[in-house]
Amino acid sequence: MLRPASICIVLVLLAVSPLVSGAALSVRLNINNTLNTVYIPGEGEKDSSELGAETVYTNPPHYYLASYLNNIMTGLAAASGISLAVGSTPTNHSIAIEQDTANSRIFLIFTTGDWRVIDNRIDLIEAGNFLAEISPSFAFGLGSLYPIKLILYYTDILIQGDMILQRGQHRLVVENNGLSGGKPVVTIKRV
User: Fold this and answer.
1) Is the pLDDT of residue 131 over 70?
2) Which terminus of the chain is less hemmed in, N or C, by CB atoms within 10 Å?
3) pTM of the entire structure?
4) C-alpha span between 35 and 2 (Å, rounded)
5) Contact 175/189 with Cβ under 8 angstroms?
6) Is residue 145 in some structural domain?
7) 112-129: per-residue pLDDT in tens?
8) Sheet holding 83-88, edge to edge
9) Contact 115/61 with Cβ under 8 angstroms?
10) What is the CATH classification number for the domain harbouring 36?
11) Residue 163 sits in the same domain as residue 81
């Protein structure tokens, strides 16, 4: 039986002050196995056991890394960066992103799937639109393809009721409560 890998997050500030020109932040995940597959944009998939000493990539097409096994993925993603780094020892492997501290944001990802989960979202991350999605998540659909918004506004019907419904199933009652000023009065309630 395989155990889930434990993850150690290492944040390294490479300069004393974020106001200093060239200040950088490095986020590194140390994963306690060498069974995973690691995906590096522009390089492809590699066995984590074969990564060897740390390798740094300074011009990848995208700034994300994914490490996965048995449909469980751990990763890092950012809109931009200075470099990506991967490496392994006989007992663990690591993935890291380094970026400028100014406007830095690195997403820590733990979900099902493989590198494609991040790849499907990286354009939104790079454009700065990921967090503006209806449900910004790597674990679930973004919800932007089929959002349901129902806004009722009629000039010839008086609608009584004001509610906001969250995700999920809901039971509603729509009642005709007669006329008022020649207009039908409709009440909408949650059951």
Assistant:
1) yes
2) N
3) 0.66
4) 10
5) yes
6) no
7) 899 999 999 999 999 988
8) 7-13, 24-31, 93-100, 83-88, 55-57
9) no
10) 2.60.40
11) no
